[in-house]
Amino acid sequence: MAATNAAVMVAALTAILQRLPGNSARRQRERLLLALSVFGSVTTVEATHFLDIMDPRARVCELRKRRYQIATVSVPRATECCAI
């Protein structure tokens, strides 16, 4: 079940990237906002790997300066090296 949800998430994030191509900060913010509106939350890893946002922290900071209310929640997850 979790693998199916992950596959759906990856497919949806990939579709967002295809819908809003480009690597400008503006375009990255647009992709992040769309993903947040669709899913409610996006991890830093998901934003980097699947939305092609090089530094999601910077985009979140820029959005907050534009008065978007975005919460940051630390969630322990295994890294690619399997460390938590």
From TrEMBL:
Superkingdom in the source lineage: Bacteria
Residue ranges constituting the Winged helix-turn-helix domain according to the UniProt record: 28-82
Alphabetical list of Pfam families matching this protein: HTH_39
Classification lineage: Bacteria, Pseudomonadati, Pseudomonadota, Betaproteobacteria, Burkholderiales
Protein name in the entry: Helix-turn-helix domain protein
InterPro entries (UniProt xref): HTH_proteobacteria
